[in-house]
Amino acid sequence: MFNNIIYFIIVLLIFNISYQKPSSEVSLFYSLVMLFVTWAVFAGLCRISFQHLAHHVRHEKEAEGAPASHYHRLELKFSVLAIFLFALDVYFFHLRYWLQSIPGLRYFSALQGILALSLFMAYLGTIWYSSHTAYAAAFQVTVSRRAFIVSNIKLNVPILFPWVIL
Fold this sequence. Notes:
By secondary structure, this protein is mainly alpha-helical. 80% of the residues lie in helices and 0% in strands. It has 6 helices and no strands. The longest helix has 32 residues. The model has no long low-confidence stretch (mean pLDDT 89).
């Protein structure tokens, strides 16, 4: 939970301090394709890594607590990678420029921030979707994938309320 507060602060800082050029050197199509490609690679890495962890937990006898430790370490690794990819989206694919080019959005920085955070939440959602099986195996719980993702969203959205209010 506390890690996520730091993640959101970093993401908001990255988005808000990004320098906005008057025009983008790359087209909207290129930016969208690259956003999709980076997300797809990220999703593939998440899926493979968490499947490997789930397989390892199910078939290997480890010391008690070790699967949870491995799960949290992998989740941390992918959360940091999500922050890096978000920074890539902002600085190389000109996320802020394209958000400001939406009619009426240029003057509402909170809406721009919410849309940018939605992209970051998509990265986190990808982690949660991919990690469900490993989570269930590591913590020996039975929870549906949908309930797992919804609970993570419910845990993270309140973190953003103070920022939206300010």
